[in-house]
Amino acid sequence: MTKHNVCDESDIPVGDKKPFKLGDTKLVVYHLQDGFYATQHSCTHLFAPLGKGKIVEDCQIQCPFHRARFDIRSGDVVEWANFPPGVQLLNGLRGEKSLKTYPVSVENGKVMVEL
Question: What is the DSSP letter of 42?
Fold first, then answer.
């Protein structure tokens, strides 16, 4: 694994997120109360951009399309796609799948993501 400097610690306020592209890898870096985290950029339901999603419950990312929610720290599914009504029919074809997460560290004020 290689560490990549994605931004300065001050570039992402607590409670916010920012999308990045490192080579062929798209990811989102989140700044939560307890530190920085990173997940893949695309929702595992229908690949919507999580960079356009919203942080809810202080530690979950909600997909902007079908409202699937994931734990930012672990990538685990908290709630699978549930909007609009009827999307559950599609869920039979797209089973629940966790987000890929990436190790994040802060070194001398720089946010580092390992790929």
Answer: B
